[in-house]
Amino acid sequence: MFLIINLMFVYLTVGRVNTDAARGRECYFSTKCRCFSFLPTQNYNAVCSNSKLHAIPVFKDNIHSIDLSYNRIQKIQNKHFSNNGNLKELNLSHNKIKSLSKNSFYGLRKLSMLIVSQNAIDSVETNTFFYLQSLAYLDMKHTRINVSTLQSLLFLKTLRMDFILNESNNLSFTLLHLKHLDLSGMSGRCEARTLTEDVFKFIPNIEDLNLSACKINWIYKGTFKFMRNLSILDLSYNQCLTFSEAENVTHDLIYTSIKVLKVNKIHKTFQMNTMIKRSHLRNLKGTNLIELQVNSNRIQKMEKGALLQLPSTLRTISMSDNEFSYGDYLSDVIFLPVEHANISELFKSHIPSKYEERCEHRNESNFQEEEIKNHISSIRPNFVPLPLRLKSIVYRNCLIRYEIPAMKMSENSIEYFDGHQNMFFSLIGPLCPLDHMRYLDLSGNMCSNVSKVFFKCIGNLQILRLQNNLLGFVLPDDVNGEVLQYVPDLREINLSENRIPTLPYYFFKSQVSVRRLYLDGNLLDYLIFKIDHMKNLNFLGLSNNRFSYLDKPARDQLETVFKNNKNLSIDISGNPLKCTCDTKDFIQWMGNTKIIFNNLHFYSCRLSTDKKQNLNNPNRLYEVLQKECVSYTSLVIGLISLVGLFVSILTFGLVYRHRWRIRYMYYMVKIRYFETKQKTHERKIYRYDAFVSYESNDRSFVHGQFLRKLENDAGLKLCIHQRDFLPGRDIAENITSAIHDSRKIVVIMSPNYLNSYWCMFEYNMARVESIYSRNKENILFLVFLQQMSPRSLPLLVLELVQSQSYIEYPNDEYGDTVFWEKLKEVLT
Asked: Before 40, cis peptide (omega within 30)?
């Protein structure tokens, strides 16, 4: 029974630890530690960093690793870890530990990694590391641990330590299994101004040696000669070393297994430029070097033939942050066996350091002045020599402002070109040949122009990145999609941050294989360019533009793409979306479509009240808008009806008021369309002297006396409707034409005249003719056959009687003579 209770207790305890650990919860043994388990095993990691611990907690045996960094621990109690036989990793860095005793690590028989860096350790007993028989990794940077105490670490493979080479001329320990030795001053303290052949003689099996930033001035021949397994050597940031001293290093490397050589910044930043000579590299030809780094060395040129000294095994070369100039050495580039090259940050500016390293010898430039003056390049203009095997070029952050003209390149295998953050302000091209290129990055170049032939020789390009430029000045004019016509196989296009206001409909007409299209951070407000032919499109980035909604044509295009690719997703976050009655169809579409909206939790829109609304649930928002817009629609319909009624009444009133003018203009246009008017330079010639307007009951007077007196006796030509109107022609048209072709209009006024519709029509047409065609000339003449009271006259007639002359037909013989004479005088 007692045994069963104990087993249950153990099970519950372990179960509690594993449950807390799986979730990264507080450990049961310390409130200041977090536990993370290795399910399904019962081992777990304890993270107690930054917990202000002054003492090390007691841990159980099922712990895999312990992190106690960044605390205030001052001492490790003897045999404190005696119950942690399964512990593999222990981190005690950044504490205040001052001493280590021989029992500090007692019981840690399986410990493989120990980090005690950044402590004030200055006292270590001789057998402190005796119990760490499985230790393979030790970091003791920024401590004063004597290297002689490491002798018992027979299986140590990686050691990170400080290296101060003063009285002792070597590392006084023998660790035959040590493979990786980090003595760098970048992460610790290192000062070794002179390296001789005795310094590393007890650790001959080193494979990776880091001596960067160790203030090295001299390296004697033979220092690395016995390191047969040395494959990685880092001598970077020893600014007093120079290439002349590094020649002793290359002398030893032919006896090693060197694969990677790093000699970055072994020349001071603010000294004269330097030149790589053949002698600096000649010893490398017999090595199996794969990677060479010579960054930040103010290299301006190379001696002719120097590049030919590099081994045929070289595949990667990094020469960034230098000052290369044009020279004959460029013709040697074609013969380089490299596949990857980094020539970034050319002509980069630097800030002087307050703590400039002092050199014990004069660090002068090896660049001969006469070579600069007498240098004549044999490379022809607009020709770029490239290594035949070259596959990738990194050319970033070069502070040179120029356009890329048409250039001819040597045969190459370039697949990858990273040219972002330069100053290529104009892309003219083409660059030929680049048949193998798959990736091109020209982002961040402040480029405002790209020609229609720039991509002509890059037909197999798959990824094009042109973001963060100024192409919004040129792309909207490419209405026929000519800029990208030569790159139909593009899989990814990035045109973000280009201030593009719009893209023409056929801009992407050749890009049928695009999978990812980025147009974020532009000035787009409508999606008018064609995308429904992109059957493989699975992402469209439209974030941070000016879209207030996606209209129906845009939505239809997206749905067409979705039919071919069910994984389609779009991002329209950061746009000033609107949630109003005008855009409710868009909100409904967002809720119903199966297209994925990336970052939907960031979407928001503005209501008609200018209030922001989250778009997490488009369907619910659509229901709210639907209710609001029903009443709104009724109000709009009512207002439109009222406005329509008002406009109709106003139009009717205006038409009624100007009805005679409108009718007159209608008939005049009709007459002028079918007839040709005769004109003279001085004045118009009228067909009739007068048009006689009378009512049929008064025709005896007109035909009996009027025509005889004026036509026969006076020789005038009169227009009489019963005689001169054209048969088959519209009456109103005949009247208007006769009035327009007559110099005067004589109205035979009588009660019968006032009661006749066509007589009043003739009268009104004559008035309109007088006002609008004769410049208000008095062409209308009234003849009253009998006396009529003013009350019987219409307002329009009475107005004319009061303002203009008229005549009454007399009843006596004398008056009759005067009447006809006056009438002849008026009409002549």
From this structure: yes
- Determine contact, residues 823/782, Cβ cutoff 8 Å: no
Three-state DSSP at 737 gives helix
For 178, half-sphere exposure in the C-beta direction (CA atoms, 13 angstrom radius) is: 25
pLDDT in tens, 456-513: 999 999 999 999 999 999 999 999 999 999 999 999 999 999 999 999 999 999 999 9
47-28-134-233 Cα dihedral, nearest 10 degrees: 0
**Adjacent-strand bridge partners of 570:** 540, 597
- For residue 458, the one-letter residue type is I
**DSSP states along 697-736:** GGHHHIIIIIHIIIIIIT---EE-HHHHSPTTS-HHHHHH
* Residue where the block lists tokens 């003791």: 140
Instruction: Find tokens 């020649």 and name the residue.
Output: 247
CA angle 430, 434, 435 (to 5 degrees): 120
Task: Summarize the chain as % helix, strand, coil (round to 5).
Answer: 30, 15, 55
CA distances from 30 to 18, 26, 757 (A): 15, 7, 115
- Specify the pLDDT at position 553: 96
CA 511 to chain centre: 18
Closest by CA to 690, choosing from 767, 735, 746, is 746
d(CA 156, CA 656): 111
Q: For the residues of 366-434, what is the DSSP string, one character each?
A: ---HHHHHT----SPTTEE---TT--EEE--S---EEEE--EEE-S----EEE--SSEEEEE---EE--
Q: Give the model's pLDDT for residue 22.
A: 45
Location of structure tokens 């290529």:
424
Q: Which residue has the tokens 């002398």?
A: 251
pLDDT recorded at residue 40:
65
Residues in contact with 739: Cβ distance below 8 Å, sequence separation at least 6, in sequence order: 691, 745, 762, 765, 766, 769
What is the tens place of the pLDDT at every residue in 305-338?
999 999 999 999 999 999 998 888 999 999 999 9
* 497: nearest Cα among 526, 520, 464, 463: 520
Which pair of tokens denotes residue 32?
Answer: 């200041």
- Distances in whole angstroms, Cα of residue 154 to Cα of each of 104, 109, 157: 19, 13, 9
Structure tokens, 357:
């390293």
Structural domains of the chain in order of their starting residue, each with its CATH number: 1-161 (3.80.10.10), 168-348 (3.80.10.10), 391-523 (3.80.10.10), 683-827 (3.40.50.10140)
What is the Cα–Cα distance from 310 to 281, expressed in whole angstroms?
A: 7
pLDDT higher than 60, residue 378: no
First to last CA, the chain: 149
- In a 10 Å sphere around its CB, with 0-12 CB exposed, 13-18 middle and 19+ buried, how is residue 308 labelled? middle
If phi > 0 it is left, if psi is from -120 to 50 it is alpha, else beta; for residue 812 that is beta
The pLDDT score that the predictor gives to residue 2 is 36
Spatial CB neighbours of 821, under 8 Å, sequence gap ≥ 6:
none
Least confident of 63-67, 265-269, 700-704, 793-797: 793-797
Three-state SS annotation for 779-802: CEEEEECCCCCHHHCCHHHHHHHH
Whether omega for the bond prior to residue 433 falls within 30 degrees of 0, making it cis, is yes
Query: Could you tell me which residues are beta bridge partners of residue 260?
Result: 232, 291
| Three-class SS state of 22 | helix
Q: What are the backbone dihedrals phi and psi of residue 827, each rounded to the nearest 5 degrees, phi first? A: -90, -15
Closest CA to 750 of 684, 716, 700: 700
The amino acid present at 386, given as its one-letter code, is L
Cβ-proximal residues to 367 (8 Å cutoff; 6+ apart), any chain: 272, 273, 274, 275, 300, 301
Spatial distance between the Cα atoms of 739 and 519, rounded to a whole number of angstroms: 70
